[in-house]
Design brief:
The mean pLDDT is about 95. Strands 1, 2, 3, 4, 5, 6, 7, 8, 9, 10, 11 and 12 form a twelve-stranded antiparallel sheet that branches. Strands 13, 14, 15, 16, 17, 18, 19, 20, 21 and 22 form a ten-stranded antiparallel sheet that branches. By secondary structure, the protein is mainly beta. It contains two helices and 22 strands.
Amino acid sequence: MRGFWTTVLNPGWYHGVGKKRPFFEGWYFKQIDATTQHKYVIIPGVFLSKDPHAFIQVLNGTSKEAFYHRYPLSQFWAAEDRFEVHIGANRFTSQAMSLNVDFPEQKIEADLQFSGGQPWPVSVKSPGIMGWYAWVPTMECYHGVLSFDHKIDGTMRIDGELIDFTNGRGYIEKDWGKSFPSAWIWLQTNHFDNAPGTCLTASIAMIPWQWTRFRGFIVGLWHEGTLYRFATYTKAKTETLTVVGEQIHWVLTGKTAGAKHRLEIIASRGETGILAGPSTVDMGKRVAESLTATATVQLSRLERGKEVKIFEGNGRFAGLEVHNVEEELLTAK
């Protein structure tokens, strides 16, 4: 029987065993084929509240169409000692995805294999992307990164169209908890033309904490085998955060990878599709997500007041969500 420690140290595993409602958990699989013409997100998950059920969400990043396929809770199964989830005839792990979605509005058959993935490092002191916050049992929402970047092999047939994903690129993350935050920005890309394998994942949100709230953030740039992390729990600072029209400008500084660094992100939104997100009551949050955003990134090491550039690149086909920022996020500290 696994305990609290084992679960925290394995972010990819299902965390809902024995949890009181409300509770949700969802795994986010992003896949882009080698031609970059086909961009899909598949999100298997489970929702436990007044209307308990399992689901598989599908977002077509090219057409912006989104589908929510609902399954009885009895068709959800998760392994106790690894990341393996079954929903109906569909199977999900960090190494493979097998789909047999059969609904009047959409039919999908897929057999995809993933290789070369690198998760966010896990240690007792910092068990994944959440850092020491992962040990706090009362957080509203938890987050995990299971693969910064991996190779895809296999095919997917969607409504009769066969798509070859051989030599495509993928990314896997997940969320679980009671509800999505009230406001957030989330950004991810692993398509840097000049740096294959490099991945940026970044989020900032309003975090309930005891009787108050704060603006918490987690940013990770995985580049050439090194993770540069900027987060509230590493005492990094947000120097600039603005959202003007379709553009986001975010500048962070902090000590990471043994030295002080500065990270500048300029992201431009693309057209969005609408996904469902969890509240404590239902899956009623309307989450506008783009898979065609861009993110220009520059990482520099700060030495004696000077900046030494380490990496600069333009990330394409970025996933980007901007939710309720004007009312809460931009005015908070």
